[in-house]
Amino acid sequence: MAQQKFLHQRPIQNPFTNPFSSSPLSTSSISNRPISLLSRNGLLLLLALLVILGVFLPWAGSPLFPSPNKLSPSQSKWRDYSLPQAVKFVAKNGTVIVCAVSYPYLPFLNNWLISVSRQKHQDQVLVIAEDYATLYKVNEKWPGHAVLIPPALDSQTAHKFGSQGFFNFTARRPQHLLEILELGYNVMYNDVDMVWLQDPFQYLEGKHDAYFMDDMTAIKPLDHSHDLPPPGKKGRTYICSCMIFLRPTSGAKLLMKKWIEELETQPWSRAKKANDQPGFNWALNKTVNQVDMYLLSQAAFPTGGLYFKNKTWVKETKGKHAIIHNNYIVGFEKKIKRFRDFNLWLVDDHASESPLGKLE
């Protein structure tokens, strides 16, 4: 009777108890019993392994997610390449030309590089790669001309205008430029949805701290003032942050620090999908009495809203255009089509003129 009472009070074991639990069944019975692939547990385990392999295996060799243990010697070298090393390598006459690029922008980088090469300035170009795929691709084709400043960003979301990824991508710009100024170099920044038609350095007159271009479409006289324009309806100017030239002066450094400060106080949110340009304009407005500023010629540096929209003005200013910016339009395909319509999409027929050659 005692034995029957004991059996009655003993809890009944579930034969399908979690094998990773701490129950007696998992630590004794199952540990000593091999799992057959044809059993229920075996099939579940096999299915789990297939799911894991199906999710992660395709990324194993992806350039977007390189494994540090599987890097080639050259990739390992570029992963540790520092900004001071890169700037020293590319700078000519104390000047470096900088762009910031994520993987989806590589075709635009190549197009821009062709136009820069035609003006004999490609050797001064430093690509700040925002992801490892860009870092490895550029340095594979053009060793030493790309550097990544950690942390790396998500290359697949950083390019969507108005997104938080895009803000994170562009908001790093003033810090990159400030670090180069602190190293003692002049720096020209360009967005890569631009095309050079002339050498822009000939328009950098004088020895000012900072040079920039207007983003307004209203036509100015050819002899317009080079002072910072007056604020607009929103209380700030409308200067483009797409093309900037800075000298390593205290004024230029102050401007970059103020820009960083403005971006920190006006972060991205769903309600206010900010980008870097308003912060740059606030920084200009707040330091105008402390920084020696120079507004570049509108004819030489027209905004896309003027160059691609006003045929009469383009004809009247023919021969004066230095850098064309393909803004005032959103979307990769739309930008490419517009460039093609104006014979400015150079990669179709002139990829060999780029240091990167034809991208696969």
From TrEMBL:
The chain crosses the membrane at residues 43-61. It is an enzyme of class 2 (transferase). Keywords: Cell wall biogenesis/degradation, Glycosyltransferase, Golgi apparatus, Membrane, Signal-anchor, Transferase, Transmembrane, Transmembrane helix. InterPro entries: Nucl-diP-sugar_transferase (IPR005069), Nucleotide-diphossugar_trans (IPR029044), UDP-D-xylose:L-fucose_XylT (IPR052636). Residues 1-25 are annotated as: Disordered. GO terms for cellular component: Golgi membrane. It is found in: Golgi apparatus membrane. It is a single-pass type II membrane protein. One of its GO terms (molecular function) is UDP-xylosyltransferase activity. Pfam families: Nucleotid_trans (PF03407). Its EC number is 2.4.2.-. Residues 14-25 have a biased composition (Low complexity). Belongs to the glycosyltransferase 77 family. This is Glycosyltransferase. It comes from Arabidopsis thaliana x Arabidopsis arenosa.
